[in-house]
Design a protein that fits this description.
single chain, 613 residues, Serine Threonine Protein Phosphatase 5, Tetratricopeptide repeat, 5 domains, 29 helices
Length: 613
Amino acid sequence: MVFHLLSLDTAAPASRQRLLASTAFVLVSLSCAISDSNFSQPAHAKGARRAASGGGGGVMLKSPNPTNPIEHNNRAVELGSLGLWADAIREHEIALEGDPYREDFKQNLSGACLRFGDSLASKKKYYEAMVQYRKALVADPANAVADRNLDECLKATGKNPDDAKVRHSIAETAETEGRFKTAQVEYRKVTRMTDDGASHADLARSLRKDGQDVPAFEEMKIAINKPWKDKNEQAACHSQLGDVLWQYAKSARDRGDKVAGMKRLQNAAVCYRRAVTLNPAYSDAIQGLKEVAREAVSINPSFDNHLMLAGAYQLSGDFEHAKMEYEECWKKGPTSPALAKARRSYHMAVVTNPTTPPAVLNTTLLKVEDSLKQNNDDPEMLYIYGRGKEAQGDKDTAMRAYRAAAAKNPLVVPDLAQGISRLGGGPPPTIAGGAPGAVPAGSGTAGVGMPAGAPVVPQAPAAKTLSPTRFAAIEGKIRSGDVDGAMKDLMDATDKDPSDGKAWLLLGRCYEKKGDLDQASATYRQANNLKDPEAKDALRQVDTSRIQKLKQEAEKQEAENNFVAAASSWKDAATIAPSLILPHKKLSEMLIKMGDQKEADKELKKVKDLEKE
């Protein structure tokens, strides 16, 4: 029989293994073990202790009236032995509520719900049975028998349990109705079927709505490292991860821990920036970035924090406040290269935003003119000047600036060729012999520091990656121990060009140096997606380090013949490092030993696919 009547003092690991032939899910937070509106009455409700003195429908009980979790568990075992499953479940819930970290309490509750579900299913009360099977899976996600019996009930009601869309629809409906425990069980099933970013994000969202922030956070971390089909959904996940970190930062602030608060603020800002990189119009992420930046400035009004706040204001189109923050940065670091880059970005944002106030646009154009008087060979600044003049309606000056920029670097800004075409200039001009980039005589940018007709030497298009010398300087910083300085340069680089795989690779090395292996893995994965040749090996090495503790725990559990626990550890390892072969291979072995060939075959297929790669 499936539900083993455990007594607290005599239960052995081997007997619990025979209870649950299961695929290993990651354990959910215990707070989800009790209440869902479509589950039975909560443990603390009136009547939960009805069987305490010979209750249970007039059945005389031998166990004493329970006064502590162990006695409630033993009372539940006795009730279960009499087939009084509803009463047994209530007593198990009371026991678990009193001692939420007892694994055997969780397994006993799960087993009681399973047996009650089986009883209902045998009477063809499939919907009532599914309620109990889902309760069993909330208490113990590794209860494979409950999972399998739930599938059978779905089949009996005319639904296909192996269709991810069907399970997702059930979860979505339950979530909409506020039945979050039901939603979590179904979303977890979907993650096993699809294992993509969107399914893990759905589960994280449901957990967060249910007040389970820590499990939600862990699911979001898994989600951002999985494949995504929709960049906007991926951006939303990054933004929600930022929201959780921002919440943690406020908790640290309230208890006076400024160091932890600042670290979490910085991590939240990274998440929000990644969200905006994926979806530049994502207002929630922009607002979140502004809030964490303001908080960071209030804690420590440093150059970096003012720069972060300036960028947040700039993203939201609040150029006046952005300018004020950049002025604060200038007071603290007037010669900073980061400030020079930020100012250039600010000017670009001002001239390309159609809602920019005329006074702000005029001020920016004056600044750009001053810059061009000192260096009229800067194609990006020439484009910025031309775009600003176009916005003011001065098409002649705009055209001269565009053509001068094209002479220097026709690919400096993707909009440059379109700008020339917009103003009626046709395709970019060509030099003698047909090469692109020359400026016809008399078409110089008079009035912007470049006399009409001045000779222009065409330059090579801007590279998409950092220059080799810049890479050498950053790698030098890493070798010398200036990891923070290197990270700052690399974050600037990835913000300006998110498609630079080498920059992501070096950023991953910095995270690895600082001991943040989770972030290192995420950045190496990004570098690998961008086809950096060194990224795959770096990702494999860091992921191997990340799963070492789980590997040791799994091997210890396997040596004790505790295959259920070993499978759970290997499942966690496979989730953390999905591109490693070992966790999938070992998980398949544990599943075979537990008799779950169907799930084992899925893991073996992953092994074969990874071996092909």
